[in-house]
Amino acid sequence: MKFSIHPFNFRWVLYVLLGVYAIVTLIPFLWALSASFKPLSEIIAGDFFPHHFTLDNYRQIFLEQPLFLRWLFNSVFIAVCVTVLNLLFNSMAGYALARLQFRGKQFWFLVILAVLAVPAQVTLIPTFLILKSFGWLNSYQGMVIPGMINATFIFMMRQFFINFPRSLEEAAALDGLNTLQIFWYIVLPLAKPAIAAQAVFIFMGSWNNFLLPVVILFEPEMFTLPLGLNTFKGQYISYWNYIMAASMMFTLPMFGLYIFFNRYFIQSVTFTGGKG
Question: What transmembrane ranges does the database entry give (predicted)?
Fold first, then answer.
């Protein structure tokens, strides 16, 4: 006897499983959100919902912590600079590897693939020594320059441009545009799905970066938010109410960015998953 699963029933089972997974995933975030409105005593007691709803935690980090807004500015400034530079350089490199013919093209592509296999932790000490020799420790350029290109997204953009219609570029060339003009005026405006997906992931990576700041930033005025949050943890007590409030302020920009660019994600997967 053969058994078969009706597609309609299977779809509902899948929806239920995804719903349960979503709830389980959201529980830690909801707990953190609830804890941000609780006094420290209720967090230690383990209550999920606040019995005494308070905004004192947010008032404390904004008004009583003089460096919190500076940390927020540092994180925004560094993440925006890293994202803009990556969008420009990764797109240019990906387009060159996909369309242009030059000596050593295959070699450089293999180098980029090799870089993908190197963990970031391996390059941390060389990065520190190079920044120290340039005098860039504890500086914005020390945080921005090492992260202004990304091998993963160079590869992603190459895949996108390989699948880009050549007919559009040929028509632009017939109209008298050179390679740079074709890239800037024709290709980039039509690459919004890949660029938007790239922007979200790069901004998120820079926004959440803790490893590089903890190595090269040593003055509190230069701290980013992930590093600044660590200052709420003392040797004998951790102010989890302040940490949770600051974490919510740290998380909300990423939610907004993801929601804004979400519609581009499926398009980017469609374009970048083609032939190599």
Answer: 12-33, 71-95, 107-131, 143-161, 182-204, 210-232, 239-261
